[in-house]
Amino acid sequence: MLIACPYCGPRDLSEFTYQGDANRTRPNPMSNDQSAWNAYVYERVNPAGDHREFWQHSGGCRAHLAVIRSTLTHEIKSVAFAREAAK
What would the pLDDT profile of 63-76 be if each residue is shown by its tens digit? Predict the structure, then answer.
């Protein structure tokens, strides 16, 4: 599988580290809502189709990326810097 880093260009998957699901919203760090923290840490969706994920180009420029990948075919639909994707 190739991931097209916006800075370095297409690179093999072995240069990247999966950083997790990019669809979850982290609770406020000052929150004491145990159910919100349990949901954030333990509850996961397992979609069949396009899924937004965070990856880091750990073997290259070390950029954090937001990747949309099909869980059925592993086809990479889009890649953007995570900071830009959050806007």
Answer: 999 999 999 999 99
Rounded to whole angstroms, how far apart are CA atoms 66 and 21? 10
The proportion of the chain whose per-residue pLDDT surpasses 70, expressed as a percent, equals 98
Domains of the chain and CATH, by start: 2-85 (3.30.2270.10)
Query: Biggest alpha carbon distance in the chain?
Result: 42
DSSP 8-class letter at 59: T
* 83, 75 Cβ separation under 8 angstroms: no
| 84: enclosing H helix or E strand | helix 82-85
Cα separation values, 33 from 26, 28, 44, 77, Å: 12, 9, 18, 36
Rounded CA-CA distance 39/26 in Å is: 10
State how far the alpha carbon of 1 is from the alpha carbons of 15, 58, 81, in Å.
11, 16, 19
pTM recorded for the entire structure: 0.84
